[in-house]
Design a protein that fits this description.
275 residues, alpha/beta, 6-stranded mixed beta sheet, two-stranded parallel sheet, globular
């Protein structure tokens, strides 16, 4: 990096407040679609009531790592060279800043988590598939697609990265490596949404999609899942998922979906009290 260049951490946005039913069906994101179909009561607590909850250590680590990757990708887009030492300074600043924006339930593990997060970044920069001289087509772009011609809401989203040739990349942090048999299916709503958004904005078909998992194991590793461009079946399935979402939100269908996922849900106590 040029010595005259100032390192500025990316802006961190806090969570949105309560939303009206009208707002929730005018625009929709992949994360809201996924939450609604995972558990409608969880959706109600998170998006309609916007009940305040402290961030978990894992969520804080993930958002900090994601923000540093955004900084690194933008630097490459500007053809700036960034050292690991400089990235560490950005990471430390973001780590502290995000805590000031939203409290974190550390349970005495902050230093351990902080070190684990930077080890993930270091592993990704050194061993990941993206080279320092690869210039992105786009970084962290907010995009939207008006799907009114399908009688559906406007689809909105933020694409982490578009590599040369129109390959869409999504970054994820996790505690274990993804299952190659199910990873594409589990992320189908998000990936299909990215494909639709990219086509709407560019008028072109994406060349493919990639999931880059930064796996927080004792020896951090990077797992890249390469996928083809979304199919017509995936696109139509996304539209049906959106249609079901709109119908459910309009009738205020907040029925819970008890299951194994409840053990890690931040609204478990509220759900137990629901009637």
């Amino acid at each position: 990096m040029n010595a005259a260049t100032t390192i500025e951490a990316p802006t961190v946005q806090s969570r949105s407040g309560p939303r009206t039913i009208e707002n929730l069906i005018n625009t929709v994101s992949a994360s809201r679609l996924s939450t609604f179909h995972q558990c409608r009561l969880k959706f109600y607590f998170r998006y309609v009531l916007a009940l305040p909850k402290p961030k978990t250590a894992a969520l804080h680590l993930g958002s900090s790592v994601h923000a540093v990757l955004k900084f690194w990708n933008k630097a490459r887009w500007r053809s700036q060279e960034i050292s690991l030492k400089e990235l560490h300074a950005v990471y430390s600043g973001l780590w502290q800043h995000e805590q000031e924006e939203e409290p974190v339930d550390w349970q005495g593990e902050e230093e351990e988590q902080k070190m684990a997060g930077f080890k993930l970044l270091e592993t990704y920069i050194r061993e990941g598939p993206i080279k320092a001289d690869e210039k992105p087509e786009a970084v962290e772009v907010s995009v939207e697609a008006d799907l009114g011609h399908h009688s559906l809401p406007t689809l909105v989203g933020i694409i982490d990265l578009v590599r040369p040739g129109g390959k869409i990349v999504d970054f994820k942090t996790s505690g274990r490596a993804p299952d190659p048999e199910t990873v594409s299916h589990l992320n189908d709503i998000q990936l299909s949404g990215y494909g639709v958004l990219y086509r709407e904005v560019t008028g072109k078909t994406e060349s493919g999609l990639e999931l880059h998992h930064l796996v927080k194991t004792k020896a951090p590793k990077v797992v890249v899942t390469e996928l083809p461009s979304i199919s017509e079946v995936q696109e139509h399935r996304l539209y049906h998922v959106m249609e079901s979402y709109v119908e459910g939100v309009q009738r205020t269908d907040w029925v819970p979906s008890p299951g194994m996922q409840c053990a890690s849900c931040e609204f478990l106590n509220e759900c137990k009290a629901w009637c």
